[in-house]
Amino acid sequence: MRIGVPQEIKPQENRAGLTPPAVQELVRHGHEVLVQSGTGAGIGCDDAQYTAAGARIVPDAAAVFAAADMVVKVKEPQPSEIAMLRRGQVLFTYLHLAPDAAQTRGLMASGCTAIAYETITDAQGRLPLLAPMSEVAGRMAVQVGAVALQRQGSTKGGRGVLLGGVPGVAPGKVVILGGGVVGTHAAKMAVGIGAEVSILDKSLPRLRELDDLFGGRVKVLYASGAEVEQAALGADLVVGAVLVPGAAAPKLLTRAQVARMLPGAVLVDVAIDQGGCFETSRATTHAEPTYVVDGVVHYCVANMPGGVPRTSTWALNNATLPFTLALAGKGWRQACLDDSHLLEGLNVHEGQVTYAAVAQALGLPYTSARSVLG
């Protein structure tokens, strides 16, 4: 198969769809890989490294999309990229379609087969291609939240709280909403720097696991509406770490509740890719990551792991490469027939929405993924 890797064009996105070692593995299996010149700049890899791995360097994205049977990316295709997709072509990347009607309709109109990293499952019901970026985002959430808490200026300054505190001064309070991969890694970072940490989740078995994992170093609380509100109102930093696979994120804090939070408190919304879990959230970029609503600093960067592109790209490729090899080696139909977990990634095929949560979120007709396999 001919696999194409265009350079990412979403603002401040420096990750790459494939690393040179991943290219080498694909070439070793008999596939041809086309890489747009400059694709690896953000991860510290030049064109020569891709060439040495066996890739053919092409000058622009148009050359990639025109020649590739399968396009491998990181972020959702931008409008100019959607315009280059065609019927019979496979797109393999993060999509996050539920809050994005324009992208969904664009993919439908293109006729392509779009397989989303974030909805592929494993035997335990987990999301193995979302997990590495969730790990990165969870750890980053505390890191960026700690910076946002600093008193940097009159318009975007936080409470002036050092999360770890110092002898004689209490540490900051971190509240994490959601005890999944993002929440767990956020808690590890927050505990590591000495903050006072609470995790709220609606799964009692998960709360028991977290209590065992952290050995009493964090408070584990059931996420009732009243408990979420009480925890958020007393927090210095709140991390939104909830996920409903493939669907829009639930709103956990209303605008009225945000207005009652401590002045200069910080909200980090890791769920912003799925529409955000705070009513006051709107997507931002690494260039302008924060804004203030009612005195509360919001960090809502939609591609947080893009801020550490080298770490993120290697972590992502470790997870995606087996699926990329299967799709390239067998073709998407046979690969999905052989692997029901990969089939869960099929979101759009030849104008049809094939993932139920996306269709429901956008009010579009739904066609089951299995029915399109033929």
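^ that was protein a. below is b, sequence first then the tokens
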Amino acid sequence: MQLGSGFGHMPSRNYLNRKIETATFKEIQELQEAKLARQLDYLLSRSLFYREKFQAAGIRRRDFRRLKDVARFPLTTKEELRESQAAAPPLGKHIACRLEDVIRVHSSTGTTGRPSFIGLTRRDARMWTALTARSFYTQGVRKTDIVIHAAGLTLFVGGLPAKDAIESLGAMFVPIGTGASEKALMAIQLLGATAMHCTPSYATYFAEWVRRQAHLEPRALGLKKFFCGGEPGAGIPAVRTKLQEDWGARVTEGLGNADMAPIIFSECPQQSGMHGNGQEYVLVEIIDPETEEALPIERGVSGELVYTSLERECVPLLRFRTRDRVTVLDTSCPCGRTSFKLRCIGRTDDMLIVLGVNVFPSAVRDVVSSFHPRTTGEIQIILEQPGPKVAPPLKVVAECGGEGGDWNALKTEIEREIKAVLTVSASVDLVAAGTLPRHEMKGQLLKRAYESRAAG
């Protein structure tokens, strides 16, 4: 079956590319199988990194015959890519094209702070635009929209690629960037903006800023759509509900990865989980992060996302561990899209273990947010020593809302609810609204107190 790329494809009302987005599992599997075979040939002929990696693992090209055979190939980690770039700058031993064919680079930063560069050829950039445009279209971007981009614009992969994608849909792109709330407010009012692209942390921060600085209710600005990503949050029920109440707008979320593509999964207006939008560009697996075993993609399965490039020239990756922990919510949707839907729980490298129980900071935030308006939903988890193991009780700082009331009673209720929902004991320290730091990009739910002590 020949399925088009979707770039430049005339959209129907609900789909940017109906053929791809409503294709059967068998049709997508056949397409991915053929594309991965070609990508493997390309890797072995162009990528020193993967030639060495396959040789070390005792893997040969002929070991791939069917799509399921990909599970026999070794996983690729971010640490390996950093080592590759350190050994062969600027783009590493995993570059698979001529450097002069690279038209743009983006970067991501990890816990070390050392930038990791991602290169794009002209064809790679077109692919990113097609995939990102489909993800935005799934969320509801239409030609009539005026979209305020309140996220990074420089090396950030959600910047220029978002611009290219939104403009390709015919919508108006307004490049505000970060740290410019006054400009964002002015643009919304003067241009009659209909939508905003930002992190959920910024959507929360901006609502508070509008009330405090402009003395306006956020919903009075008339925004109708929020496209959020970059961190878990917009899919957390209590957080989403508060954002939608503040703004009077529909909030949907997207999920991507700097090394693979800016937005790969995104929610349709059903708001019941993020659909995969890159069927012909990215092969998606879910693995058990401990055993590294591939898991079936079916409702209720939880594990780590793994991506494989199917059509990449510069830095194609095979079985790349994203460290994103996800749960499959469903394999069908009333919208008609046939790709499975998931929710991102958090990053496996942020996960905490309390007496053997896995706890994600976003889950703690969800519990605290459920007490709104008695809480603002802002939290920090205090770590007295490096994780992931944390001695109980889990230390949580949470902001009270502006309604006052009995703080001691609220503290007890939150601690009981954390115990009931997450099965771990917590010690909650309540502080006044506005005490915890606000973030215009990604929120910081963990405070590593031991680092401050060491620095002191």
